[in-house]
What does this fold into?
Amino acid sequence: MGQFIADAVKGPLDVQFNVGIRKGIRLHRLIDEFTDSHPVVLDLRAKYRGELGLYSSVVIDMIFDFWLAHEFQKHTQGQLIDFAEQAMTTLTHYEDQFPQRMHRFFQFMKQEKWLLAYGEKEGMSEVIFQMSKRYPRAEALAVVAKDFQRFAEMGKSHFEDYWPLLNSYVEIQRSGIAE
It folds into this structure.
């Protein structure tokens, strides 16, 4: 749950969240730092930057999410539908603890079954298109939504290189995150 709300929680963590949620937020922040500075990601960002500008990082996150969901069993030894059901059950249980701005987003995410949509090119394209309507000067996201296949293929080898490195990093960090 902490990883889901992490982007909406700013500043230092206090006792408003339980230990598990705080650890999830901290892990999410560590993953963001690792990802934003990793050479594989920086290489892909350079390829996207000319066309996407500041939205290149957002698109990389979405492309990596797509490849993880699209090939979920290959990368996790589980089924995407089982993960999505478990995640939605967990998130629904903690919904009363979401930061205010997450409530509407979560309802839309549930209604549109985004976790499952992430694994389909058409679904991810629609998610990105919806994002393009919500953010200012997000024309670059509309471009990605229209030509998702091209951007996804450009990012696939980067995801394949990055995923095992991220998994190793997360395993190391998970055991050392302070309460």
Notes: DSSP finds eleven helices and no strands in the chain. The two ends are 15 Å apart (CA to CA). Residues 2-176 form one domain. The mean pLDDT is 91.
